[in-house]
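Input structure tokens:
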């Protein structure tokens, strides 16, 4: 059977979309993530603005590779939003919509630093709003905010650091395969998946985890000033409900996004009718506050797409991440 050309498949998809009522203007087979960010007004009409930036998913500086297009990393996208906001003197407040289980320790700290730097350079108040999950690195990046608000159903906390690496030596033993590694020093292949860790190596890795975690805990102390008893509970690494987090002074309020916007306008001394804006790379029909996409996805259900990045680590390394499935 002759293979069907890509052009023919594309034509059939466009025809099928028209048959089911899709307007040609909505055709967007391959979203262009290189398009510039443009402001879109979600509500309000006054010249004062409250900017909403979504921070959703795994915190990483690695671009997400797709079948036909690549998507910018979360770090790149959030920093692009912050940089664009710096040039707008009408922005009176920034609202971060956080829904993330965390990510790499380095990238979590990068976003923390960039958000804190934006706050210091612009004097624009920042309100962090936690949605479903704002755990580990997701909590870490909320710390520079002037106020942290959690949805009543939010899961947060998981203040801690993990080192993740695969171990396949037992599998290799079962199938009779050996990996021979020649090293220049005793610990050059520390964490190798091809052999168990020695006691000394475990101690080295633990010391590194402890050092990175101490930085996380220091950030919590600096921004939240918990009591000694609360800090002991917080630094245990467990997750908390919104109510539990408020009792530990990890967050300031429990509420909904409209509550956060109202507070942001007050903090930024903005007009009550201030425009609530977001930055998009493409227009979205019926756009609203809960849209966390900057680019419209393909409108064709038959287009083959790569699966979204797994929320589990993709490579060995140190993470501020809550991964209960691992």
């Amino acid at each position: 059977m002759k293979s069907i050309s890509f052009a023919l498949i594309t034509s059939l998809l466009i025809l099928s979309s028209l048959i089911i009522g899709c307007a040609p203007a909505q055709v967007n087979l391959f979203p262009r993530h290189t398009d510039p960010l443009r402001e879109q007004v979600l509500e309000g009409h006054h010249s004062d603005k409250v900017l909403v930036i979504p921070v959703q998913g795994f915190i990483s500086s690695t671009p997400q590779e797709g079948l036909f297009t690549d998507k910018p990393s979360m770090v790149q996208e959030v920093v692009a939003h912050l940089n664009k906001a710096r040039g707008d003197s009408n922005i009176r407040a920034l609202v971060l919509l956080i829904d993330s289980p965390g990510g790499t320790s380095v990238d979590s700290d990068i976003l923390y630093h960039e958000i804190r730097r934006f706050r210091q350079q612009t004097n624009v108040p920042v309100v962090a709003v936690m949605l479903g999950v704002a755990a580990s690195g997701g909590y870490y990046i909320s710390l520079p905010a002037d106020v942290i608000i959690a949805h009543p159903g939010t899961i947060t906390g998981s203040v801690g650091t993990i080192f993740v690496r695969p171990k396949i030596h037992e599998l290799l033993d079962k199938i009779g395969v050996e990996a021979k590694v020649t090293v220049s020093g005793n610990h050059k292949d520390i964490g190798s998946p091809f052999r168990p860790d020695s006691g000394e190596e475990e101690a080295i890795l633990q010391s590194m985890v402890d050092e990175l975690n101490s930085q996380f805990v220091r950030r919590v102390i600096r921004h939240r000033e918990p009591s000694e008893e609360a800090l002991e509970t917080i630094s245990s690494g467990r997750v908390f409900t919104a109510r539990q987090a408020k009792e530990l002074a990890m967050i300031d309020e429990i509420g909904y996004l409209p509550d956060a916007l109202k507070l942001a306008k007050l903090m930024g001394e903005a007009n009550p009718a201030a425009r609530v804006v977001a930055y998009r790379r493409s227009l979205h029909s019926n756009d609203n506050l809960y849209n966390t996409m900057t680019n419209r996805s393909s409108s064709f259900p038959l287009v083959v797409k790569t699966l979204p990045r797994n929320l589990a680590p993709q490579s060995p390394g140190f993470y501020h991440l809550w991964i209960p499935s691992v």
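Residues 46 and 274 are 5 Å apart (CA to CA). The chain has two domains: 1-30, 32-163+239-296+304-321.
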